[in-house]
Structure formats: structure tokens, C-alpha cells
């Protein structure tokens, strides 16, 4: 397996955008992820579900990207919610307190339903 | 006890992928469980990212020794003296995201990911030693 790669794909469900991350969200790939998220927010797509089913790894650089996007949203009706994280990544969210900043769901369907 | 695996690179962001492959390869070759691989990789990634970002080092080496009971990683760089263990921890209890400062998050993750971490300045080099128990 090659490291240092992250595939980002987007699907639209009404006013919610699902962003699937496949690979590693780290120093090498953080700028790509940040550009994608900020582009969505800039286009008015403010309800975002990040599907982390195929996210293998996240470092502090990746956490910063998510935090920056969340701050950009402000206090409107939009939000960034995450779904289907591996136990290791969920643990990273727990020990950093990010599980109190972001709503986390077991699967994409639950995260989508939370916006309706 | 096996001889340690050692990787020496020129510190720049582009080498982080090679460091990740080296760490994961050495640990998997040693039969280390995947949850331990994840934690050690994270600690090494955060430490090397800090060195590449701040130390102005010309050389960075990562040594990994897999033993029955634990994994020991020693990261050495010839950059400016910097003890990452003195970095102020982030305010992880702050629920107001506007008051959260992301600085220090990497060092915090290092501390949480391994069981022991020590820093020394030896012969003009920073030496960060991390130990992760295998169970």
C-alpha cells in the first residue's frame, strides 16, 4: 500500500454533501482536504457528512483541517458531521476532545438522517 | 533481539510518506498488532512533522527496534535544540472551538500514543526516544 495519498469524492443528497475520504489525512494530504472542504463551503454547501469508512489514518494536521472548516461554518444551520470511523480514528477524536466538537455517527445513513 | 531498522532522510515534507512506509513496514515485519502500528506511526509522524517544520535540521533518522514486550523508536535530528516535551498541551477540555488553539496538538498526540517518551540533547543532536508496549 502506498502512503501519502488521499482520495476525496463527493456525493450530493439534497442539501447535504457526503465527502468520502479514502486513505490518509496527514501533513502531506491536509491541503487537498482543506481545499475541498473550503470549496464546498464557498459554494454554499454547508451541510457536510464526512464518510470516514476508508480513512486509514489521521494526524494533527488532519484534525486542524476539520477544525478550520468547522470554524469557517460559524453558528449557522450548517455543520460538518462524521460517519463510519475506525476505532483507532475514533480514539484520536476522543483523546483530543474532538468528539465533543463534532457529531460522530456509526454510519453514513445515520449522519444523513441527523440533518433532516 | 533483532537489530534496529534505521531510515535516514533529508528533512522535508515530501519524505513523510517514506517515513510512514518505513515505520509500518518495520513494525509489520516484526509481527506488531495493527492498533500498535497505528499509535507508533502517529507518534513518529507527529515528531517528524515538527522536526521538518521547525528544527532546520539537515539530517533526520528514525530507528525502530521491535522486541517481544515493546517497540522502541529513536528519532535523531541535527537541528536546533528543541525539547518537544516542554510544549504546552492544548486545551482539550475547551468546548468552545473558537477558544481552542491547535498548537501543541501534535506533541499531545505523541504523549498519548506511546507509553514512554524522553528527550535528550546529545552531541549537537536532538534525540527523542519513544517506547510503546505491545500489550
In brief:
The complex is a heterodimer of chains A (116) and B (135). By secondary structure, chain A is an alpha/beta fold.
Write up what this structure looks like.
The complex is a heterodimer of chains A (116) and B (135). In chain A, 38% of the residues lie in helices and 29% in strands. Chain A has 116 residues and is an alpha/beta fold. In chain A, strands 1, 2, 3, 4, 5 and 6 form a six-stranded mixed β-sheet that branches. In chain A, helix 1 links the parallel strand 2 (16-25) and strand 3. Chain A is globular, with a radius of gyration of 13 Å. Chain B is globular and about 35 Å long. In chain B, a hairpin with a 2-residue loop joins strand 4 and strand 5. Chain B is 33% helix and 27% strand. Chain B has 135 residues and is α+β, with helices and mostly antiparallel strands. Chain B is built from three helices and five strands. In chain B, helix 1 (16-29) packs antiparallel against helix 2 (34-54) and helix 2 runs antiparallel to helix 3 (105-113). A five-stranded antiparallel β-sheet of chain B has the order 1-2-3-5-4, covered by helices on one side. The longest helix of chain B has 21 residues, at 34-54. Chain B has one domain (5-133): Heat Shock Protein 90. The chains are: A alpha/beta (116), B alpha+beta (135). At the A-B interface, helix 2 and helix 3 of A face helix 1, helix 2 and helix 3 of B.
